[in-house]
Amino acid sequence: MGLGLASFAGPASGDGLDEWQSRKPPRLRIAASPYPNFLLHILPEEEGFGGHLYRVKIDTLGWGPSSETGRGHLYTRRGGFLDLAHVRRTIDFAGYAHHRVREALRSGATHFSFESIDRTTYHCHLAYPPFWKGLATGERERLVEEIALLAAAEAAFDFNNWREFLTWYGFHNVPGMPEKGSAFSYEDVPSHAVGIAVAARALRAPGVPFDKAVTRELERELAELEVVPQATYRRAMDLVADRWWAKKTCLKRHLDTGRDDGFVDPWLVRGLEPGRGPQAKRYPAPSRGYRDVLGHDCRGMVVFECEPKLRREDVLRQVLPTGETRVRPARDYPDLLRRIEEEVRREFGPNATRPYP
User: Fold this and answer.
1) Residues in Cβ contact with 270 at an 8 Å cutoff, skipping those fewer than 6 apart
2) Which of 134, 171, 279, 339 makes a 20 to 30 Å CA pair with 118?
3) Residue 116 has pLDDT above 70, yes or no
4) 96 near 25, Cβ under 8 Å?
5) 8 A C-beta contact, residue 304 and residue 326
6) In angstroms, rounded to a whole number, what is the distance separating the alpha carbons of residues 48 and 330?
7) Is the pLDDT of residue 353 over 50?
8) Coil, strand or helix: which one is 21?
9) SS3 label, residue 302
10) In this predicted model, what pLDDT tens digit does every residue of 133-143 receive, in sequence order?
């Protein structure tokens, strides 16, 4: 189950990243803390979030120009807590994976890889079924577009969730600033799900530059989710204090990646506003099957892997399958998630993976 072709229904694929943008993988985006500390930045809903910027140009005046709000926390009535940096980084990963997969399929390449800030090399392996060479040029190009869109969602979701696995087991970029306290926090996976939903529509926009399409679709998505004022955000945080979060750590961990029913369900805070509570918007998880792509069985054509290059052997032992040097998300994530779920419940209690008992 997951994000099938129906979720991508619409006109032919858009342009995606341009050639200059695609020369660099997604850039560093600083997430906000999910509990009060110096990294927590609450976004006001009335100011908007500016134009998305995949890649920053440097001119003689410094960085810029950009109206993008790149980081911060917000609460939405239908999507719960969200981290804007996580949303944007997922969108960027989708745009980059879409471009690289599409170009690889067009050229007949069988592999590409790229590095990321989490000391991981991400790999994509491509295999071509017997029917591939016999396709008419137009039909092959349509198939390339659809496979690239499916792969974009899969890679963006899985590669962003990969960092949550690493930080749960002790990885962190900045010395002296451990990140386990926010691994799989209650806004991470929902933010990734929002990101792939926005990217899916933006990558479908014909003739619209990637950044402009993302800006439009993100505005639409956040409007549908209903971002609340800062005062309501603070009230939401107060209502789940010592329940979902405590000083320097999260007491609840959101591990719902859709592996059970194909959907990611955001957590909503109960009793936040008077009256009947809103209905959470469910997000389909990405598909990994490629069983029926425009009538073609494309299973096994696209395989992603994470190759951690960490200095800490203790983290590597925890995240790598026995005897392996790489993690294959489609194969290995379910077992990793089951193990982490057990560890979370042992550390924080039997209800630590659910918003409410």
Assistant:
1) 239, 277, 356
2) 339
3) yes
4) yes
5) no
6) 36
7) yes
8) helix
9) strand
10) 999 999 999 99
